[in-house]
Every structure is written in C-alpha cells, then in structure tokens.
Amino acid sequence: MAANSSSTGSKPSTVAGAKPAGPSAEQVVSTFQRMRQEQRGMASKAAELEMDINEHSLVIDTLREVDASRKCFRLVGGVLVERTVKEVLPALENNKEQISKIIESINTKMQSKGRDLTEYRERYNIRLVGEGEGEGQTGASSGDSEGGGSKSGAGVLVS
C-alpha cells in the first residue's frame, strides 16, 4: 500500500504540470528500442538481398560466356532442376531485377523509419549513451541531482 500511495502522490504533480497522461520513461525507451530494432532488421535484410544480387550477377556473367544449349542446374524451391542456359538466364535476370526493386522498397521504408526515429528522439529528448558526452554532460548531472529529472524537459538516456 505504501508503494501505491507514493506513486500516486508523485504522479498528479507531474501530470498537472506536463502533458496529460504521457507514456512513462520505460514505455518511451521500449518503443524507441523497438523502432531501432525494426530499422536494424531492415538494414540486415537489405544487406542480405545485396549479397543475393551479387551472387546473381556472378552467375549471370558466367552463364553469358557459355553455350546457350549447355545444360545447367538450378535450385527451385529446394529441388535441383536440370535446365539449359537459354532457359535459366532470363529467369535469373528477372529475379535480379525483382530483388533490386525489393531493395529499393526496403531502403525507402528504412529512410522513413529513420525519420520517425529521429522525430521520436526529438519529441522525448532521448540521448544515447556516449552521444554528446563532451557537451552538457555536467549540466545534466547537476540538474538531475537537484530534482531536474522529474521535469518534462528532462530526457531519457538509452544504452
């Protein structure tokens, strides 16, 4: 019961002086880290697809140098299929184009996510650990010791 009365006692002063019922610091941090993780996932997927394009280019360049009637093998859905170079080469070029379009789409989504992330950081004054250590670090620590951490202008520090 003591925990409930102390948390309720501190909340009204923060809510009355700041925005009405904003998210807690933990919610802000978890949302920020989720957004960063989504952006990292997009970046790793784009890098993986870039490697696929490089592999496609290597195979396409190799197949262009051989006779079109020569047989080759292609893995389709986990099954190795025998085809001719003449049949496989257009399919590989088409796949390469489709992968390029997907990469462009991922890159635009990643840029949009980056803008959202920057906007979120600015809205909640989020600072990353190690970011801007030379500037304002002493002012922030003295502000926190004087009770500045409970003000709406105080930021969230994310590791």
UniProtKB/TrEMBL annotation:
Record bears the keyword Chaperone: yes
UniProt cross-references to Pfam families, sorted A to Z: Prefoldin_2
Biased composition (Polar residues): 1-13
Keyword tags: Chaperone
Region feature Disordered, mapped onto this chain: 1-27, 128-159
GO MF, any single term: unfolded protein binding
Cellular component terms (Gene Ontology): prefoldin complex
GO BP: protein folding
Keyword Chaperone carried by entry: yes
SUPFAM superfamilies: Prefoldin
CDD domains from the UniProt entry: Prefoldin_2 (cd23163)
Assembly description: Heterohexamer of two PFD-alpha type and four PFD-beta type subunits. Component of the PAQosome complex which is responsible for the biogenesis of several protein complexes and which consists of R2TP complex members RUVBL1, RUVBL2, RPAP3 and PIH1D1, URI complex members PFDN2, PFDN6, PDRG1, UXT and URI1 as well as ASDURF, POLR2E and DNAAF10/WDR92. Interacts with URI1; the interaction is phosphorylation-dependent and occurs in a growth-dependent manner.
Family (UniProt): Belongs to the prefoldin subunit beta family.
Function, in words: Binds specifically to cytosolic chaperonin (c-CPN) and transfers target proteins to it. Binds to nascent polypeptide chain and promotes folding in an environment in which there are many competing pathways for nonnative proteins.
Protein name: Prefoldin subunit 2
